[in-house]
Amino acid sequence: MAILDASHPVIEEFIWCKAVEEHKARALRDAGFDMGVDGRDGFSVQYQNANNSVRVTDEFMEAVLEDKNWELRAVKTGGLLRTMRARDLMRQIAQAAWECADPGLQFDTTINHWHTTPKAGRINGRTHVQNIFHLIIRHATLHL
């Protein structure tokens, strides 16, 4: 699984990387290349075995709802690199997901709010299966 924060400076490229490869795969298939799951030409398509997710915070989701700007920041320094409408970024996420089922969303604030061992440090990455399993365990322990 690949996860990138919604504030990462190359988030737009990440959002579209798999959809662009899907477009390429369809064009190659339409041109007669063997693009089936075990096809001899499918190896040229990148990211097909990846599960991409954009990590969003409550702050980002509120910016989407309130049609506010969202800041893309340098990873190492935190310096502001670019500002864009949060809704525009969310629309790109939705469009790319509609085209190729990725990226998904990871809700950073919620994941860390529900963290069962916060003394171990914040959670920076988690698979969807872990999220579901965590909820099942949490539900089971609340009802014992």
TrEMBL record:
UniProt KW Oxidoreductase keyword: yes
InterPro entries named among the record's database cross-references: RdRp_reductase_class-2, RNR_lg_C
EC number: 1.17.4.1
Keyword check for Lyase: no
Domain Ribonucleotide reductase large subunit C-terminal stretches: 1-124
GO MF annotation: an example: ribonucleoside-diphosphate reductase activity, thioredoxin disulfide as acceptor
Pfam family membership, one: Ribonuc_red_lgC
Origin: domain of life: Bacteria
Record keywords: Cobalamin, Cobalt, Oxidoreductase
Cofactor(s) required, per the database record: adenosylcob(III)alamin
Protein's UniProt name: Vitamin B12-dependent ribonucleotide reductase
Organism field: Acidithrix ferrooxidans
